[in-house]
Amino acid sequence: MVEVTTDDLPPPKGERHVLQPREELRFEVAFGTAASGASPNLDVISFCLQKGSCELYGCELAVQKVYSIPQGGIKVALFTWHGCVIDLWEGSTEGALDISYTSDETDSNVAFVNTHAQLEALRDDASLAIFNATDETTKKNISGPRVMVVGETECGKSTLVKTLVAYATKLGRTPLWVDLDPMDNSISVPGTLAVAPMTAAAVTVESYATTGIPPNTVHPLVVYHGSSTEIHPALFKGQVDRLAHSIQSRMDHDEQARASGIVVNTNGWIRDEGYELLLYTAEALKISVLLVLGHDRLYSMMTSHYKKLQREQGDDTSVVPKVLKLPRSGGIVSRPSDFIRQCRSRAVKKYFYGDMIADNTTSDAEKESKTAESSMKRIPQLTPFLSQLPLSDVRIYKVSSMALSSSLLPVAQQQTTDAVQIIEIDLEGSTSDVDSLQHALLAVCHPAAVAAYEESGRGRDLVTAGVAGFCAVERIVKETDQIHLLSPCAGNLPSKTLIVGDITWME
Ligand SMILES: Nc1ncnc2c1ncn2[C@@H]1O[C@H](COP(=O)(O)OP(=O)(O)OP(=O)(O)O)[C@@H](O)[C@H]1O
How far apart are CA 448 and CA 443, in angstroms? Predict the structure, then answer.
């Protein structure tokens, strides 16, 4: 094995880490840049691959390129197959780097790349079969791997999904990334379930190091679950069914997407009803490969379940997924609840303000006299818009936690056994209802979903449909009966029918 040397490199900037083949550099950066007195608009941590090759969750770093992360609150690992030299340095905030160390316990990375190779073989088979199929119906029934990653919370599920998506897109595949984790959604704001078509352009080191996918690259389909702390099983099932339907429609019309398959992240609820929801989801999304991350009990439960199903179904094994067990990375450490809370807040802020980008508005004179600090200055990419609407113009619904029993309904009212019920918030009446909306994150319904709901009268038609976007309640002025809403762009809202959950956000 050739040792990686640094003799031919310029002096290090900050810490220099020399990684031998199959080692990874793990580092953690604290939140709290503002608390430490520095401007939050400056870079917090930067790294540069000086030599060799390395990747962040499957996304390759360019040599000699400085990657600057303008936010704290990250825990990442840079892995090398063949050895490399990485410089890592703090920006405006001294002490931001909590810990950095090199580890050679990277068997999980090898297992991930082997899994990718097997999935790629399935994609090749699917592409060939689609190409050779003579009629449309046969073509439509062929699909690449439909993968779902399961495991308990904080075992590295999102990381594995990101890695598999990065490896697939690097080879020109366009898999759908499905994130069914409302607690920590990588594609959209917390409290959502989402699907995004992925391409190589959507996989970047900066986005993989923090949260979300780069704006302007993909158009995710997002449904609002309304909570980042608990899952409403009936609503979850309804939303998974709707997403499954949309995924199928897309696959029916896009052969490349069909051959590339889907990669699904789940939410870590693996016991009791959570386990039942995993099985339900696997069936609804026609999962063909189940990856169980570091959990022997779950692996055993799933293997026995599908063996039994296979016995019952005889020859029809089309709906029985292959269950594989993968090791979890030793680098994953549990994130304190305050850290997770700040990650969620950052994800909402990113929705309204976009990424922090380099400030190119400085004049030539300013550029001439640029200090080290101003060279790192960043500004938000988007300018959110504050609109004021009369309270009487908007309709805000929330999901009620249980269906009303028919005996409690007024005599003339339609009886229902649907467990997904919505209630309209009384904006004219109780002040506690109105007060509960302060700083709430509201999902803006699509006009088509509003029309469907008005026609059917079924709440599920509204809350299981994809949303047009989100806005946040800045304040409600009771004296003027106005609601002030922050939205990511100017102009009228697509509809004034909104859904509220239990997620709040304020700057
Ligand atoms: N090899 C590693 N070394 C250090 N940190 C890592 C490594 N792999 C992942 N992490 C970090 O560990 C944290 C938890 O990982 P991840 O989000 O993938 O877990 P999860 O199972 O999806 O969690 P949750 O169920 O809470 O969403 C993340 O901050 C991730 O960046």
Answer: 14
Q: Whose CA is nearest to atom 8 of ligand 1?
A: 332
Q: What is the ipTM of this complex?
A: 0.98
Q: What are phi and psi of 290, to 5 degrees?
A: -110, 120
pLDDT score of 10 more than 90: no
Helix (H) or strand (E) holding 66: strand 66-69
| pTM of the predicted model as reported, rounded to 2 decimal places | 0.91
Is 26 touching ligand 1 by the criterion CB < 6 Å? yes
Ligand 1 and 158: CB distance under 6 A? yes
Token pair listed for 360: 């190119």
Render the burial of 210-233: b for 16+ CB within 10 Å, e for the rest.
bbbbeeebbebbbbbbbbbeebbe
Provide the 8-state DSSP code for 324.
Answer: E
d(CA 210, CA 184): 12
DSSP state of 63: B
Distances (CA, A) of 249 to 242, 327, 461: 11, 34, 18
Interacting residues of 147 by C-beta distance below 8 A, sequence separation 6+: 119, 164, 261, 262, 263, 264, 287, 288, 289, 290, 291
Residue 274 and residue 302 in contact, taking contact as beta carbons nearer than 8 Å: no
Strand runs labelled E in 308-457:
322-326, 356-358, 378-380, 385-390, 395-400, 421-424, 440-445
In degrees, to the nearest 5, what angle opens at C-alpha 43 toward C-alphas 42 and 48?
160
Mutational pocket test of ligand 1: of 332, 337, 343, the residue with most ligand atoms within 8 Å of the beta carbon: 332
For the stretch 486-499, pLDDT in tens is 998 888 899 999 99
328 to 291, 335, 470: CA distances (angstroms): 11, 16, 34
DSSP state of 405: P
On whether 156 is known to bind a ligand per the annotation, the reply is yes
